[in-house]
Amino acid sequence: MRLKPHLHLIQDILYARQEITIETFRLQETVPGREGIIEGRLRFWDGSLLEFTEVLIEHGVVLVKTDYVYHYQDAHHQLIFRYDNAPHHPEIATHPHHKHTPNAIEPAAPPHLGDVLKQIDQVIYPEA
């Protein structure tokens, strides 16, 4: 997916979610049409919080996330999960990509923000 469509998709996903309070949100093309940054801070009805950053570079027809973090915590600031690609866990099979949970560090592919929101939905709407 190209940069501009991805940026618009992320914006559409967030603004379609009426139950989310967008505390901060920034889309920026750092190199027009080629590189961009998406950052946000989203508050959910239960007080939980998602903070995220994506750094994106377009290589031909492929959009690459060169750096990312999706940090989700409860209303008491306790980690629920965090996906990132910081290279500090070389023992993980998907290094540098991984997921932190309260009790482990797990292999993980770079997630899409839409998938992160679906995972949060499973936490805050367990019956859904």
Structure notes:
The protein has helices at 3-16, 113-124, and strands spanning 21-31, 35-43, 49-59, 62-73, 79-84, 98-101, 104-107. The chain has 128 residues and is α+β, with helices and mostly antiparallel strands. It has one domain. The radius of gyration is 15 Å and the shape is globular. The termini are far apart. The model has no long low-confidence stretch (mean pLDDT 93).
Proportion of β residues? 35-45%
Biggest beta sheet attributes: 7 strands, antiparallel
Please indicate the count of domains.
Answer: 1
- Total number of strands: 7
Low-confidence stretches: none
Helix content: 10-25%
Across the major sheet, the strand order is 1-2-3-4-5-6-7
Strand and helix order: HEEEEEEEH
Mean pLDDT: 93
Query: First CA to last CA: what distance?
Result: 30 Å
The secondary structure category is alpha+beta
Task: Give the overall silhouette.
Answer: globular
> Radius of gyration from the CA trace?
15 Å
